[in-house]
Every structure is written in structure tokens, then in C-alpha cells.
Design goal:
6-stranded mixed beta sheet; 18 strands; 21% strand
């Protein structure tokens, strides 16, 4: 412990790193009823705290070692730190990265002069290849977390936190992959602020440090999830394990939806977009605060925003899952009679709540001989987790068969997009693509514009944050009634395009 503290206090990180700000999250603070702050390591030159440990280690190397070059294994952030530090010190850097590494990180490493080798599907395979190459070439291996100088460099994050926030700190939340950041931060925070909790946060599907502490020694997980790729480590470090075991107050695990919700929280309060592992600590903070509502609330809760190296295309998934992770959207499967009036009563039963998704496809008669509709619907929630249970209970009391899909991975990832398909026995179906106004009552107005004899055979809507609702609808109308439908839709006033002859409609929706 004494040696770790000495290394932290003498770390040479500021040749390349900056002292990042400790920013408040006012909206989240108001929701939780206590001060919440984020340590902005996403603002480092390589958009991650990893530059601290990498440079602190490389700064200890002598001329002979630097002449042999350095090598590391990394899922991205440590790689950028090593490449940046090596260029600063005049050394050649070889970076072994998993083939699953987000392209933004690979491109960034190459831009910093690193020689990238893509190997293996996860960090551990890249690690094995990097150590093999180090032994073969004589390059100095720069461990991403299990090295005293790397741990010390990361520990300067905790040193800054204690200096920047002179008021009481109730807890500091630290993301854990291999444990370098958690070990370093815990060491210095517990030395300077012994009453402050230091709480590690891991993804529920990559909790290698939690498993090690529970087992009493380092263990290797069979596999880890890759959503939080920056912490996707199957085996914690030996040095880091000892420090985390002795110094962390506890470890919290969270799922991917909670991480997505935390990314949204950070964006809402600071307009910053962290990578999933960068928002991991805040997700843990929120989970811990929810589980300890009666804990003494003196002091701030601080989460380390550890990085911002996120692929742009991943934001689609993050946005899709954030509302579920926040508990502000319920996804429900509802069975009801396939009748226009039943739809209307159902929408009214939602009691003014916004519909975020409504997917339906005609399927003919049910077992009873009466037409039945199976609808996948998303409903916005505003009053907390209990609201979903109250809504489901009210719908069931009203005679609707309801299944909660909010935590069903298959439903969230796949089935919601598959509600539809071919429907036999609809020779007069027209497929129309609408732009609905994004306001309450738009769907009811649409239903009321249709004659009772015109069957609604398809309805597919999802709120994507656009200024209009994108809707695909099917309406079964005899040829003699088509003119009347055109007049009704003109009176409705919603812009639409007839997609009946679109190849996508004919190939995947036409059951004739």
C-alpha cells in the first residue's frame, strides 16, 4: 500500500494527460435528491483515462528498452494510450487488438502511429498474442492494468477527485475491467478520504473482479459480454485483485440496458456521449442509489466517465434501449379481439400515456373462431417502476391478456421487428406508408377516419425521435371502395405513399 501511494504521488502523467474537470449532473442530481458528479476522463487527448497509466509506465523505460519498442494488448483505449505515449517517448508501438474492437479505436491507434495487429475475438486472445510477440521480439510489454506503474498512473484520477471536491464525498464509483483504475483510485481515495466509499462497477456479463473476490482468488470466466468492450476482461489482474479485495467497499453489477440509460443521462446533462464502458460507473451509481434509498445522504456521489470512444452506429442500439434501462418505457404483448372499437378502448385504457411503439399484423381467426389480434406495444412511463405494474394490472382488469416484454431479450432484440409478415386471404390489401403527427390522439383519429367495413390488417410504428411518426399500415378495401378510401385519407390530412406495389411489400407482406 505504501509503495502504491508513493507511485501515485510521483506519477509522471501530466507530460501528456490533462487534469480533467469534475462536472455536476444537475438533472440526475435532482432526480436522486443528492449531488451527482462525473469525472470527465472522456476529455483526455485519447478520450480515455488509459493515457495516464500507459504514459506513466513508458516514462520509466530507459533508452535501451525504448529502442526495442513497446507492445500491448488492448480492446482500444489502452492501445491509444500506449501509441500516444510511445510516440511522445520516441518508441515504436505494436498494438494487438481483438478483431471485435470498434473501428473508431483501430483508426485512432493507427493515426497515433501504432502498428495494429488484429488477433482473436476477445481481449484474452489478443493478450496471449501480444505476450508471444514480446518474447519473440524483445519489445517491452505494457500491461493494460496489472502493473504497479500503470495502476499508479490511473490512481491520479482519484487524487484529482479528492482535490477538486473539498466537500464530503459519500462514494466514488469506478468501472472495472482488469481493475487498474479501481485499484489505483481506491488506494489514494481510501488514504486521503477513509470515510468515502469506493464502489466498483462491472457489467453483469463480464464481472471478473466480483467473481475473483467471491472465490478468494483470481478466476477466469468462460466468456464475457462485449457491449462494454472497454471492460470485457475474462480474468482480473493479480496486483489489482489484491488491492480491490482489500480496498473496495463493494462491487455493483449492471446490465446493458442500465448502461444505455446512463449514456442518455450523461448526454442529457452534459451533451457528452460516452462509450458504454465510459458510462458503466454512472449506471452502477444509479443502481446503488436505488438500492440504498435510506442511506445517509451527506456527501456527493461521483462516477468516473472513463471514455468516449464509441462507434457512431452503436448509438442506434443505445437509443433503442435507453428508455427501457431507465424504466421509462414498458413493452407489452397484448391479445385482444380484432375489432376497431376494441383498439379504441385499449388506447383509452392507457390513460393518456404516450404510445412509443405499436406493431400489429392481421392473423385471421383465433382458436375460438373469432378474429384475435396480437399487438406489440410500447408505452411511455413517467412515475417510476411501479407505474408499469399498475398499468398491466389495470389492463388485465379491463379484460386484456397482457404479457410484460420489457425484460425479454428475444422480444427486444428480434420479435418487435418481426411483427408482420405475409397474411393469407387478403386479396384487396393496400399497404400505405404514413407520416403521423407526433401528438396524442393521432392513432385514434386515423382509426376513426376508416369505415367499419375497411379492415386494418397491418400497423407498424416506432417513435424514433423524429418530428413525425413513421407508420406502415395495411387496409383491406374492396376495389369498389378505393375511391372512398382515397377521399377519407385526404380528409385525414396525414401525408402518405401507396406502397402496395413496392417490391418489399410484395415479397414479404403479400400472402396471396
Amino acid at each position: 500500500m505504501q509503495e502504491t501511494l508513493r507511485r501515485i504521488l510521483t506519477a509522471r502523467v501530466y507530460d501528456v494527460a490533462i487534469e480533467t474537470p469534475l462536472d455536476p449532473l444537475p438533472r440526475l442530481s435532482a432526480r436522486l435528491g443528492r449531488p451527482v458528479l462525473q469525472k470527465r476522463e472522456d476529455l483526455q487527448p485519447v478520450f480515455s483515462f488509459k493515457i495516464r497509466g500507459a504514459y506513466n509506465k513508458i516514462a520509466t523505460l530507459g533508452p535501451d528498452e525504448l529502442s526495442r519498442g513497446v507492445i500491448c494488448a488492448s480492446a482500444g483505449n489502452h492501445a491509444q494510450g500506449v501509441a500516444f505515449a510511445a510516440r511522445k517517448r520516441g518508441a515504436v508501438a505494436t498494438i494487438v487488438m481483438p478483431v471485435t474492437t470498434p473501428p473508431i479505436k483501430v483508426v485512432a491507434v493507427r493515426a497515433l502511429g501504432g502498428q495494429v495487429v488484429l488477433h482473436g475475438d476477445a481481449f484474452d486472445e489478443a493478450f496471449a498474442e501480444a505476450t508471444r510477440r514480446a518474447a519473440e521480439t524483445g519489445a517491452v510489454f505494457i500491461h493494460p492494468f496489472d502493473d504497479p506503474d500503470v495502476i499508479a498512473g490511473q490512481g491520479t484520477v482519484g487524487l484529482e477527485i479528492t482535490r477538486q471536491h473539498s466537500e464530503p464525498i459519500a462514494a466514488v464509483f469506478v468501472p472495472i475491467g482488469g481493475g487498474g483504475l479501481a485499484a489505483g483510485v481506491a488506494a489514494i481515495v481510501k488514504f486521503l478520504r477513509p470515510d468515502t466509499r469506493v464502489i466498483g462497477v462491472e457489467p453483469v456479463d463480464a464481472a471478473s473482479m466480483k467473481a475473483a473476490i467471491e472465490a478468494g482468488g483470481v478466476v477466469t470466466l468462460d466468456q464475457v459480454g462485449l457491449f462494454c468492450d472497454g471492460v470485457a476482461v475474462r480474468r482480473a489482474g493479480g496486483h489489482t485483485f489484491q488491492l480491490c479485495r482489500d480496498l473496495l467497499d463493494e462491487i455493483v453489477t449492471v446490465d446493458n440496458d442500465a448502461v444505455c440509460a446512463a449514456i442518455k443521462d450523461i448526454f442529457d446533462d452534459s451533451r457528452a456521449v460516452p462509450e458504454p464502458s465510459g458510462a458503466l460507473a454512472l449506471a452502477g451509481l444509479k443502481a446503488w442509489a436505488a438500492a440504498h434509498p435510506d442511506t445517509k445522504k451527506d456527501g456527493a456521489l461521483i462516477a468516473i466517465n472513463s471514455g468516449a470512444n464509441v462507434n457512431f452506429d452503436r448509438l442506434r442500439h443505445i437509443a433503442e434501449r435507453a428508455e427501457i434501462g431507465e424504466g421509462t418505457e414498458a413493452l407489452l404483448a397484448v391479445a385482444m379481439d380484432d375489432d376497431r372499437d376494441v383498439y379504441s378502448r385499449f388506447l383509452k385504457a392507457l390513460d393518456g400515456r404516450s404510445v412509443t411503439e405499436f406493431n400489429y399484423r392481421w392473423s385471421g381467426e383465433g382458436p375460438s373462431g373469432k378474429p384475435r389480434a396480437h399487438i406489440f406495444v410500447g408505452v411511455a412511463l413517467k412515475q417510476g417502476p411501479h407505474e408499469k405494474d399498475d398499468l398491466i394490472a389495470a389492463l388485465r382488469t379491463g379484460g386484456y391478456a397482457v404479457e410484460d416484454m420489457s425484460d425479454n431479450e428475444t422480444a427486444k432484440l428480434h420479435v418487435r421487428h418481426m411483427v408482420g409478415g405475409r397474411a393469407a386471404g387478403l386479396p384487396h390489401e393496400r399497404i400505405l406508408r404514413f407520416e403521423f403527427p407526433e401528438r396524442p390522439g393521432a392513432f385514434l383519429k386515423f382509426l376513426n377516419s376508416l369505415k367499419p367495413a375497411w379492415a386494418l390488417t397491418l400497423f407498424h410504428y416506432r417513435n424514433h425521435g423524429d418530428d413525425v411518426g413513421r407508420v406502415l399500415a395495411g387496409i383491406s378495401v374492396p376495389p369498389s371502395e378505393r375511391r372512398a378510401l382515397d377521399v377519407a385519407l385526404a380528409d385525414l390530412g396525414y401525408p402518405y405513399v401507396d406502397e402496395t406495389e413496392n417490391p418489399a411489400s410484395r415479397l414479404f407482406l403479400d400472402g396471396a
